[in-house]
Design brief:
mainly alpha; 16 helices; single chain; about 70% helix
């Protein structure tokens, strides 16, 4: 079976969605957003800040949606992957061993990327891969439950997290939505011995379980033997409902990604459902498949390119490219030289995905 056929047998909209998210992430490793922030144009700087930087505390920026999208996509993939393994003859025990092994490796990669520092090894549980190991495992254990149960468990996770933040009784950490003075800060200190930089909370893993678990719901809907119109309808209705609940909740619970408040999880999950609906409608229903190729080949090797870029792949490309861009353009415009360097690094990272695709190499854990 050739590589084109392998790609055709996949859900094109999901590969595009995943690939677009990963493309945005590796563009960050190429330092493109930092360069665009330094353009000197106030309008462009403001736009880049909203699009590609997290909100400082309260509020919702586009970049705040990337991690929820990533965790949601893993959930969507879970029932598809399970069905594919069963089709190939894998037993329940084999699948369970694979899932536990994958959860362990996600945790290990998450720790290795951000906990091994030059001066010492620290323990933090706020990285996306580490938290994904938890949400992925919980979602698998509930994979065969009904959609109603999965949606309800996600809401229960939000409720537990919300109540702990609101009513945690320890003095000094009893201000629910104040940075560094809430339950999340206390929990960070409990498991790591210190509060995390930026006030990111390890306890987010519980609330953001809803992202992965509700992704499972979406994945199961896409697998059902119903019309494309019915599938789109379900995704859109869920997205609009979650959006309404999120904005309603925001009246009494601030939207804060760094501690994954209820309003934030509802709003980000809503946009995830609506984004998937858009991708599914345009790509799998309208058959805009060829137009999505650039992103889809990133989407079939997402973890590899993320780890490759994180562990210095982007920096390696930059070391090779920057001397040339500085020599040829730096004297005229240092900013333009940096922009070209960043763009070339992004192209190089994309080409790694393309090379893997052409060689029929699909790296999974």
């Amino acid at each position: 079976m050739n590589s084109e056929k392998k790609l055709e047998n996949r859900l094109a909209s999901l590969d595009f969605f995943r690939g677009a998210v990963m493309f945005l992430l590796i563009a960050e490793f190429a330092h493109l957003y930092d360069v665009l922030m330094e353009s000197g144009n106030e309008a462009l700087t403001a736009a880049m800040d909203f699009l590609f930087h997290h909100a400082q505390w309260e509020g919702l920026h586009f970049w705040d949606l990337i991690q929820p999208f990533f965790m949601f996509i893993v959930g969507v993939s879970l029932p598809l992957s399970y069905a594919n393994r069963k089709k190939k003859g894998a037993s329940e025990l084999q699948i369970r061993k694979h899932v536990f092994r994958r959860a362990f490796l996600l945790l290990l990669f998450g720790w290795a990327l951000y906990c091994i520092r030059p001066e010492k090894i620290v323990f933090q549980f706020d990285h996306v891969l580490a938290q994904l190991s938890f949400t992925y495992l919980i979602s698998f254990l509930l994979l065969k439950s009904s959609s109603t149960v999965q949606i309800t468990v996600g809401l229960v996770c939000l409720l537990i997290s919300d109540l702990l933040y609101r009513y945690f009784p320890l003095v000094g950490f009893d201000q629910a939505f104040v940075a560094g003075k809430n339950f999340g800060a206390w929990f960070n200190i409990l498991i790591s011995g210190y509060e995390y930089s930026g006030h990111w909370a390890a306890f987010n893993a519980l609330a953001t379980t809803a992202h992965t678990l509700w992704g499972v719901v979406a994945g199961k809907w896409l697998m059902e033997n119903t019309t494309a119109a019915e599938k789109l309808k379900r995704l859109i209705i869920f997205g609009i409902t979650a959006l309404a609940l999120g904005y309603l909740t925001a009246f009494f619970t601030p939207v804060i990604k760094r501690i994954s408040t209820t309003s934030f999880v509802l709003l980000s999950a809503a946009w995830a459902f609506l984004a998937l609906a858009l991708c599914y409608g345009l790509i799998d229903v309208k058959q805009w498949v060829k137009k999505t190729f650039v992103f889809r080949i990133v989407g079939v090797n997402p973890l590899f390119i993320y780890l490759f870029a994180s562990l210095g792949g982007g920096g390696l490309f930059l070391k090779v490219i920057r001397p040339f861009s500085n020599s040829l353009i730096g004297g005229f415009s240092p900013w333009l030289a940096d922009l070209i360097s960043g763009g070339t690094v992004l192209l190089g990272l994309w080409y790694v995905c393309y090379w893997l695709y052409k060689k029929q190499i699909f790296i999974k854990i």
